[in-house]
Every structure is written in C-alpha cells, then in structure tokens.
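Archive maintenance. Older records in this collection stored only the sequence; we are now back-filling the structure field for every entry so that each record is complete. The fields below show one back-filled record exactly as it appears after the update. Entries are processed alphabetically, and Amino acid ABC transporter ATP-binding protein is next in the queue.

ARCHIVE ENTRY
Title: Amino acid ABC transporter ATP-binding protein
Organism field: Streptomyces paludis
Length field: 264
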Amino acid sequence: MAPASTLAPESAPGSESAKARTVLVAENLGRSYHGNAVVSEVNLTIPAGQTVAVLGPSGAGKSTMLRCLAGLEPLETGSVGFQGELLSKAGSKPRSVGGRIGMVFQQFNLFPHLTATENVALAPVRVRGVSRAQAREEAHELLARVGLAERRDHYPYELSGGQQQRVAIARALAMRPELMLFDEPTSALDPEFTREVLAVMRDLADSGMTIVVVTHEMGFARRSADRVVFMADGRIVEDGPAETLFTAARHERTRAFFEQILGE
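Back-filled structure field:
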C-alpha cells in the first residue's frame, strides 16, 4: 500500500501555509437559461482549509453556482480564479484543471461494468499518467479511507446507494484535488446511507480539505462547516460563520429560511 504522504498535497491543507492561501475567487458571476437569470452578481472567496456550506431554498441557484465554480458552466458575466490562475471568464470557454477541482454530484455516475477499485483507479491512469499498479494501490487506500476496504472488488449494482456515493468521493480524491465541491451528495439517499456519506465528508473537513458543499443537511452545515453562504433568487444574501447564521442572521430572508427549516 502506498504511504499516506503520496496522496497529500504539497502543503497539507490544515497547515499554516495552506490556511494563508486563497484557493478560489469568484467575482460578479452571472448565468442565465433561456433569458432567465439563475445566478446573479455572485462574489465569493474560498480560503484553503475551509469548509463552506451553501444553503437556500430550492431554485436559489446553488447548484448552478457550484457548476460555475467548477468550470462546468460558461459564464455570462464575471470570472473565477483558481489557485491564482484564471479558470473561467465571461465569453470564454472554461479552462481544464485536470482534476485539481474534485466534484461529487447527486447521482453517483459510476461505470457499471467496473469494480469500485477500477472506478477509482481509472482517472489517475488516464489523466495523471500513473501506472496501473500505483493507481490500484492508491484506490485501495482511498476506499479504505471511506470505509469500503472490504467492498473494493464489488460492482456498483452490488453496493448500496451510500456505498456508491462513497466510491464517487474516493474517485474524486484519487485525482488529488485541491478543492472538493459537493452538489447535494445525500439528496438521493435514505437516512441510514446519508449518515455514512456525511461521516466521510466530516472526516475530509476535519483533515483540512477545502470544501464547498451545497446541502440541505442542516446538522452537517451547523456542526462541520466553518462558514455558511445563504442564497436566494440567484444571489448571495448572507455569508458568515455557520453558528452566526444559524442563531443571529442579519437578513430577514435568512432568518425566515432557518425558522421554516428548523421550526424555531
């Protein structure tokens, strides 16, 4: 098995040097579909080692914003910078960053004809250019990290939804990302499997991985996020420390959302 250090970034995410860095900057993001604005005037800065939870009602533009941050959507206004370099800007095709931004979606999108190990090892061989043997070793290590060491030779149809989502997380980690984006990763899961996936995400957050997660899981956002971004109508309404937004939000729209969700 490969030593843990082979899977770590050059600066450990939780180190002082990592915390001093800014991983991602979004300025004045705008995106619309069929003439309808979905994301408008979004400004966001993500420091290294921080976990940011993006909350808001359905249709607020959260997932579209996340896709813009990942370079998966063309911008109509604004720009996104990643690690000091321009990732995307209005009017131009987003630049590929080769897996340095990992993304986990609502659907698992695993290859059904590949085992868990093969799903995780595929991209490192094809994109990072590592040997098949090294990729398998790293895949085994990552699957153990997400609690699937004993299921590594199983096919997706032999895994529960929570296990498949954990394979998807391991697959994203195999590219050694400097930023992990999660788009409602538990929305398609039953409560039992939701807990499994949230436990893996908490472990990543505790390890210092830089994370932005769109979620409806209020407990995770409150306990595990450093920061909460609240969105409504395609805009960021409020952005601050998680506990502050949960207990003393400044904006009426934010307070109304938490009162409705939490029943307070």
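Update note: The longest strand covers residues 22-33. Residues 1-19 have pLDDT under 50 and may be disordered.
Entry marked complete.
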